[in-house]
Amino acid sequence: MAPLHRSPGAPPTWAPRLLPPADRQCLGRGGPRTGQARALFEWNYQKQLLRIQADRAEGRTWEEVSTHIFSREFLLERPLLRAIASARKQVLLIDEVDKADPEFEAFLLEVLSDFQVSVPELGTIRARERPVVVLTSNRTRELSEALVRRCLHLFIDFPGPEKESEIIALKVPDLDVHLRTQVSRFVAGLRKLELRKAPSIAETLDWARGLCALGVRELDSAMVRQTLSLVLKHEEDLRKAEGKLGALLAGATGRASAPA
Fold it and tell me: Which of 68, 118, 167, 202 is 20 to 30 A from 61 in CA distance terms?
């Protein structure tokens, strides 16, 4: 952004250099932000532009304008910064941290080690009350030892058939009660196999929704074969499950069943 030439005595005129949306929110006097910094904050570009126009009408210089627009008033705090800056103790959930790249993990470790962040235009913001931080991971990759050793580890296994049946009832209430029990038992049996990827709760719900849409009332081998790809996403897992279909159906329905 730069001042235009003006005649003597006229108020200064500023010509905003419009940037693509991705850049508008991450540029400040400190230069371009990284993707990690965007997890902390962005600048409210629209509000800054309105302030520039108002200051221009009042005849203020760019030095005065820039002091105003790069203040806390124009800062959009993201959850990470909001938890650190809050005057009250917060609980911060960082979900599926294993899906972030190692660079972000290193950045996160740095922030959570000192519970302070630096904003070039504002200086260092320190936590008044350290938040309680909860990280979740599905182990799609191993987390760094530096991050892991700073955490209290709690392993949460898949729910049992009864609990998963309750989840299905909550998320797919139109599914027949009897079928809901069969689905949860069948999936529990699948998870006991040595699969490349055991079905998650989300995939159980996908299967339940599919069966509900098809109007299925009870599991049988033909229906399982037609819909099992909603639960298992790898060909070798499908073949392995089909080889155990009789036993899986017997466990789910409580009666002997031979695959069709």
Answer: 118
Domain that holds residue 247: 161-253
Same domain for 26 and 12: yes
Q: How many Å separate Cα 227 from the centre of its chain? A: 28
Looking at the fold, whether 2 and 49 belong to one and the same domain comes out as yes
Beta bridge partners of 144: none
Largest CA distance in the chain: 96
| Per-position pLDDT tens, the chain of length 260 | 433 333 344 433 333 333 333 333 333 333 334 556 677 888 888 888 888 888 777 787 777 777 778 878 888 888 888 888 888 998 988 888 888 888 888 888 888 888 888 777 788 888 888 899 999 998 888 888 888 888 899 988 999 999 999 999 999 999 999 999 999 999 999 999 999 999 999 999 999 999 999 999 999 999 999 999 999 999 999 999 999 999 999 999 887 554 44
Same domain, 190 and 235: yes
Is residue 40 located within the same domain as residue 123? no
Q: In this structure, is residue 258 part of a structural domain?
A: no
The count of structural domains within the chain is 3
Helix (H, G, I), strand (E, B) or coil at 77: strand
**Residue 241: strand, helix, or coil:** helix
Residue 62 one-letter amino acid:
W
Is the pTM higher than 0.90? The answer reads no
Domain contains 259: no
CA 1, CA 53: separation in Å to the nearest integer?
13
